[in-house]
Specification:
110 residues, alpha+beta, Arc Repressor Mutant, subunit A, two-stranded antiparallel sheet, 5 helices, elongated
Length: 110
């Protein structure tokens, strides 16, 4: 038996990010396009863009840089702050499930 938990971070009682939004940022970074990342994650471009803007607003940092059109087409990249944010989130998230399971076994004896 294992326990699963969801973790998200809030600012002033409003959700800023959790695994879903982090996955969106990672997919944008990997693919280099908000539109393609949105399709990959089965969400609309508008929703993906809205989620990214919401995170930026509530965190007070710029997470992505977009380049529109041009010869090679547009692209989207994470800012240095966006990259560092992902690194820190993964450091934070590392081991959470193991800790929760350990606590569950201790309390319930499983």
């Amino acid at each position: 038996m294992e326990v699963r938990s969801k973790i998200w971070i809030e600012v002033d009682g409003k959700s800023v990010f959790g695994d879903g939004r982090i996955h969106l940022l990672e997919t944008v970074a990997e693919i280099g396009s908000i539109n393609k990342a949105a399709k990959e994650l089965n969400m609309s471009y508008r929703h993906a863009w809205s989620e990214i803007r919401l995170m930026e607003e509530r965190l007070g940092i710029k997470l992505i840089i977009t380049q529109v059109g041009g010869r090679g087409g547009g692209c989207t990249k994470l800012t240095p702050e966006g990259k560092m944010f992902l690194i820190k989130y993964h450091r934070f998230r590392e081991g959470i499930n193991e800790s929760v399971n350990k606590r569950f076994r201790k309390v319930f004896g499983f």
